[in-house]
Write a structure and sequence with these properties.
The protein is an alpha/beta fold. It has 2 domains: 64 residues, no CATH class; 114 residues, Zincin-like. It is 35% helix and 28% strand. It has 6 helices and 13 strands. Strands 1-2-4-3 form a 4-stranded mixed beta sheet. The chain has a 4-stranded mixed beta sheet with strand order 6-7-9-8, with helices on one face. Helix 3 crosses helix 4 and helix 4 crosses helix 5. The longest helix has 28 residues. It is flat, with a radius of gyration of 23 Å. It binds zinc ion. Zinc ion binds next to loops.
């Protein structure tokens, strides 16, 4: 099958299918495997197909993101920690130890479990610290912080001042983690997403547009990392 490639997007592979039955150009992305197909009549020029696909580029790119293959954690895998690529390496030391951009884990124990526990541990340290700082600035008190591996939300705040966070946020850039902490702490004062709430987030964190956009664009990529051993 003929293929179309878009300018500056060598990873977007589009399969071209021309048929005499078809009357107009359609672009499809398979929900099963993310395969992209452009279909259209025989008489239409290759250039027209390309132009059509080019006009749908941003749609294709965002759709394609959800088909990124999983990344299984093992020796040599790179994972982001606070947004910085960190390579996993084996060592004789029994406890995980991060030196620069290398995370050493024991060669005697399952790698992915150690990495997962390490990420949970440091996300707890960071979130405890951030939430304490933000809640003091707000004059409120957090009762408990729970870490989970949630898919639908990055954090939550209950009526009795319990905060929940996804520990996967420790892989996001530090500002993104801090923004989510500020967001949930702001809910201690406003249990809604009113104008007053967003003002409180701004008061605690400062401008947050960039961090919100990062989560929207890249948040799903934090779920690519698979820690099952
Ligand atoms: Zn919220």
């Amino acid at each position: 099958m003929k293929k179309i490639f878009l300018e500056d997007e060598p990873d977007l592979e589009i399969f071209l299918r021309q048929s005499s039955n078809s009357r107009r150009i359609t672009l499809r992305i398979s929900a099963l495997d993310g395969k992209i197909t452009i279909t259209g009549p025989n008489y239409i020029d290759f250039k027209e197909f390309r132009k059509f696909a080019e006009s749908k580029k941003s749609w294709l790119k965002s759709k394609r993101k959800s088909f990124e293959p999983p990344i299984f954690i093992s020796e040599g895998t790179k994972i982001p920690i606070l947004g910085i690529d960190t390579k996993i390496s084996l060592s004789d030391s029994p406890e995980p130890n991060k030196v620069g951009s290398i995370l050493f884990v024991s060669k005697e124990k399952p790698v992915s479990t150690q990495v997962k526990n390490y990420l949970k541990e440091i996300s707890r340290v960071h979130l405890d610290h951030m939430c304490k700082e933000f809640s003091e600035r707000l004059g409120s008190k957090v009762s408990k912080i729970t870490l989970r591996d949630t898919r639908s939300r990055w954090g939550s705040c209950s009526n009795d001042a319990n905060l929940m966070f996804s520990w996967r946020l420790i892989m996001a850039p530090e500002d993104v983690l801090a923004y989510v902490a500020a967001h949930e702490v702001a809910h201690l004062k406003h249990m809604n997403h009113s104008k007053d709430f967003w003002e409180t987030v701004g008061y605690l964190f400062g401008p947050y547009k960039k961090e919100l956009a990062w989560l929207k664009q890249n948040g799903s990529s934090l779920h690519r990392y698979k820690f099952e051993s």
